[in-house]
Each structure stands twice: as C-alpha cells, then as structure tokens.
Amino acid sequence: MVFDIGMLTPLGGVLMIPIVTGNPLLYVTAILTGSFITAFMLGLLKKTVGD
After folding, report:
1. H helix runs in the chain, sequence order
2. CA nearest neighbour of 31 among 4, 50, 11, 12
3. Which of 1, 17, 21, 37 has its CA 20 to 30 A from that of 50?
4. What separation in angstroms does the CA of 8 have from each of 17, 21, 36, 39, 42?
C-alpha cells in the first residue's frame, strides 16, 4: 500500500518474500515494523495476572 508492494497470494509472511512484486526489502521492513509495534502495544496493554 504505502510502499507499492504487491502480493500474489491472499496471505503474507516470511515465506512469501520470493514472490513479492516490488521491493522485497521494504516488505521485510514492513513486517518487522508491524511486529515491533504489536509487541510494544501488547507489553503496554497486557494486564498482569496476580497469584
């Protein structure tokens, strides 16, 4: 979308890097950015369970 990267499959992931239409490096950057943002938000929003 932002990087004008296309995907020939309905789902993505690391295994789909060889068939990315566009710049594969930007595709990997988008995956890593999304993973880090998700991990950060989960760390902020997750409630601790008391024993």
Report:
1. 24-45
2. 12
3. 37
4. 11, 8, 25, 27, 30
